[in-house]
Amino acid sequence: MTTPDDLAHDISVCIHRDAIAPETAALWGDDPVELRALRRLDDGSLRSAIVTLRAGWASPTALAVSTVQQFALLSGRVRFGDHNLAAGAFVVVPTGAAMPTMEAIEPSELILIQDPKQAYRPVAEAHGAIVTSDISAIAPFTPVIDGVPLDGFERRVLWLDPQTGADTRMLRVPAGFRGSGPNWHPVQEEIFCLKGDIQPDATRPMRAGSYLWNPARSIHGFDEVTRGGCVLLEWHDGPWDLHRV
To answer: Which residue, 14, 19, 118, 230, has fewest beta-carbon neighbours within 10 Å?
Structure first.
């Protein structure tokens, strides 16, 4: 096996939500929301964040998006156009679509994922948003790596961008799993732990609320293990693949 000589080594970023300082931002109209930035791009723009909506918060109008926007509802209840969404819902607003008005029926939290150069434009009518009211209703499948099925794993694909190959997925990892050693991916990989425990290595323990960023073409996963199993939300900015070292 030949390993490219331009790979970065051991530069993954792992942080728990409790260690991220909250800030306020007017994302969807003039009424600000609280957010904890998970990852910002080199130009300072937001790639992913935990967004907190207070009860009664609302966006004033439908908004067209310039690039793909996604969110996974972690807790609470949100009215999204004609949909009343609860924890476990997932929404994609593709490039050129328009999201409807939103209202937090009760205090709510969501994971926001957006493509670079996101911008919003008020429009008269919403169109094109893809709403999944319950992620668990998406049929799971067993992922296959190097031709070998990962028994006990369950993967659900929440979004696959037909233009870029970027995807968002939910992965259930069984208790006692141990990885087979260091690896790398050709694209940016971001992971949020929804439930359970896992570590990519001994210096980066993860529990519910932990976030991990594996930069593209960086070697990681030196001692991947979970004791009790976990559920992960993962997203990538292009076609994902795994290369072992």
So the answer is: 19
How many angstroms separate the CA atoms of 222 and 179, rounded? 8
Residues 14-43 have pLDDT tens digits of 999 999 999 999 999 999 999 999 999 999
Indicate the residue among 98, 117, 136 that finishes a domain. Answer: 136
* Residue ranges making up the domain that contains 105: 21-136
137 SS3 class: helix
CA distance 211 to 19: 11
Judge if pTM exceeds 0.90. Answer: yes
Q: Is residue 1 part of a domain?
A: no
Report the distance separating Cα 72 and Cα 88, nearest Å.
7
Q: Give the chain's count of helices (H) and strands (E).
A: 0, 26
* φ, ψ for residue 19, nearest 5 deg: -95, 0
Domain membership flag for residue 3: no
Kindly state the tokens that stand for 223.
């001692």
User: Mean pLDDT, the chain, as a whole number?
Assistant: 97
Per-residue pLDDT for 1 more than 60? no
| CA gap 16, 71 in Å, rounded | 19
Do 30 and 117 have their domain in common?
A: yes
Domain count, the chain: 2
